[in-house]
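Notes from hallway chat w/ T.B., transcribed later so I don't forget. T.B. wanted the structure written out for a chain they're using in a teaching module, and asked if we could keep both sequence and structure tokens in one place. Agreed to drop them here.
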Amino acid sequence: MTEEQSVVTRFAPSPTGFLHIGGARTALFNWVFARGHGGKFLLRIEDTDLKRSTQEAKDAIFEGLTWLGLDWDGEAVSQASRRDRHAEVAERLLAEGHAYRCYATQDELAAMRAAAEGTGKPWRYDRRWRDRDPAEAPAGVTPVIRFRCPLDGETVIEDAVQGRVTVPNSELHDLIIMRSDGTPTYMLSVVVDDHDMGVTHVIRGDDHLTNAAIQSQLFQALGWAVPVFAHIPLIHGPDGKKLSKRHGALGVDAYRDMGFLPEAMRNYLMRLGWGHGDMEVFSTDEAQTLFRLDAIGRGAARFDTAKLESLNAHYIKASDDDRLLTLVTPFLEAHIDRKIDDRERARLTAGMAGLKERAKTLVDLAQAATVYTGRRPLSPDDKAARQLDDTARAMLGRLIPRLDAVETWDEDTLGAAVRGFAEEEELKVGKVAPAVRAAVTGTTVSPSVFQVLAVFGREETLARLRDAAAG
């Protein structure tokens, strides 16, 4: 790539299911690299397999990328819509002698496979039609078109991640680029689309490294510039094996529904295989500035849910309270099975700073937020009910006048009032505060009890304490 060319990357998923975590990281690396170089990030849906491609899967890809904050330039390209262009290029390769029609029958191909069994090597088409006269074609056989791969020498790939990769051309084979039904194959379509879309860098999983040699040959045969290849290692589970369902959720949508923030997911995925010194937390702008392909490790990264949760907790604490309320509301309403009202919304806004301190996910945050959605009369949970024994209820009855006399209803003043009451009662605050929490929230877990009282306000707090004291 020359200095005059701007960077163009692409993400090219197959729409056969959800947006996989591995695919999301690939998209992220492409997006960050393009944005960091002032270039373009393109989206291509490789939907040539019409039987497996679904609109639902396409929508899941769009939604997953949008949730992650990965915007693409222009409209998403459908590979299936470009079949005529792919066929045109196949005919060009044929006309220029870089491809040939192959009339091998299914029986002949099956015999080749059978002969290869037991050799320990993958079977290769034996090129029987490479230089054969088409006039000898058997009747009734519709040919495929195969690429005429070089027989001698080697193909060298200067991979931006893997380094120099050398493949002897003798190990390559004359792959099919056009099926007998006239549809193009993946290998041809990818090369044509990458060229026509102006892609300068192909950043993808290293499971595609074996395709790079033949794709390079196709680019060269067509007289097109070969893009920079960067093959990134796959993601493994904590046990070192390829990430699969046994390791837990695989789709980005699942992590969204589990209450992870998109910025936390971006940060975590960036650190899976790439790093900058000891930095663990960095903004998207920092990632775009610092990201380099040659800093991607060659070994597989391991997905660690505990680390993701820790990072998510950091971003929850750092988030704007109003934004958090918007994000947590659907989780909270699903948890309590109703809509929250304006009064509850105001309490949540006032109490968000305390709620978010211990939350690892939005699900955690929603559960913690229920302290502000319980309605009178409360039904304390079992642990809270045990706190509210006869002694505690009598104590709350004596505390109520003390709190009612507080002039400034804020956390500090309320804390001082409860501590003063405990001293007069010759009790430790640790004996008073739990009973107050149980009475006001119906639970034994909440943010600072004095903060909770301040959020509920004088009238609601005293009413709840009176309810509890009365039994």
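Follow-up for T.B.: Residues 69 and 232 are 21 Å apart (CA to CA). Might be a good example for the class.
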